[in-house]
Design goal:
- The structure holds 2 protein chains of 2 kinds.
- By secondary structure, chain A is mainly β.
- Chain A contains no helices and 11 strands.
- Chain A is 0% helix and 52% strand.
- In chain A, the strands form 2 sheets. In chain A, strands 2, 4, 5, 6, 9, 10 and 11 form a 7-stranded mixed sheet that branches. A 4-stranded antiparallel sheet of chain A has the order 1-3-8-7, with no helix packed on it.
- By secondary structure, chain B is an all-beta fold.
- In chain B, 0% of the residues lie in helices and 47% in strands.
- Chain B is globular, with a radius of gyration of 13 Å.
- At the A-B interface, strand 4, strand 5, strand 9 and strand 10 of A face strand 3 and strand 4 of B.
């Protein structure tokens, strides 16, 4: 089945650092990928829709200058958390839908971001 | 975007059958129903998906009544490793459709 891979799985860095998270579709092409954020004991919250070759679409309340999304190829989307602060510490998850009829969305294993 | 309602939590014991019901009163004609399982510090994992009636795979069954305003995920003979959060989502099957998560159901399986 379709596989979505995220890297890195965990990041610990100092406040003020910018962090890049990669999301790859390993065995299919994805014109659209999605980025979610999840805080402890809460559900996934959609942050943005990443569109290959065009600008990402951000959900209300998500700062586009804070969370930079680049979808330069059909198998790779990146999320960069710029000048990260402790409140940006969270679990970031990407997803993409496999090609073909009736394909569900598949999710990466997430990236745990901890800002000190 | 269809909104779903699920019980916040459920308890069960090993070997029992667990049924988790999800309400989606505003489901659209083109919407499918998809269930995911999530363990701590992992991304959601696809369990099962359906449009109407009954769907069964190796791990679960999905029951959808004729009006499609609800669905029930059935997990036969649960084990401790089935302790997780289960999410019910509805939406179209095109690649650009964004899924919005509800609160999910936290299932605890006891020995």
């Amino acid at each position: 089945g379709a596989v979505v891979s995220q890297h890195p799985s965990r990041v610990i860095c100092k406040s003020g650092t910018s962090v890049k998270i990669e999301c790859r579709s390993l065995d299919f092409q994805a014109t659209t990928m999605f980025w979610y954020r999840q805080f402890p004991k809460q559900s996934l919250m959609l942050m943005a829709t990443s569109n290959e070759g065009s600008k990402a679409t951000y959900e209300q309340g998500v700062e586009k200058d804070k969370f930079l999304i680049n979808h330069a190829s059909l198998t790779l989307s990146t999320l960069t958390v710029t000048s990260a602060h402790p409140e940006d510490s969270s679990f970031y998850i990407c997803s993409a839908r496999g090609t073909g009829p009736d394909q569900p969305q598949h999710f990466g294993d997430g990236t745990r971001l901890s800002i000190l | 975007l269809a909104k779903t309602t699920q019980p916040i939590s459920m308890d069960s014991y090993e070997g029992q059958e667990v049924n988790i019901t999800c309400s989606h009163n505003n489901i659209a004609t083109n919407d499918y129903i998809t269930w995911y399982q999530q363990f701590p510090s992992q991304g959601p994992r696809f369990i099962i998906q359906g449009y109407k009636t009954k769907v069964t795979n190796e791990v679960a069954s999905l029951f959808i009544p004729a009006d499609r305003k609800s669905s029930t995920l059935s997990l036969p003979r649960v084990s401790l490793s089935d302790t997780a959060v289960y999410y019910c989502l509805v939406g179209r099957m095109d690649s650009s459709y964004k899924l919005i998560f509800g609160s999910g159901t936290r299932l605890l399986v006891r020995p």
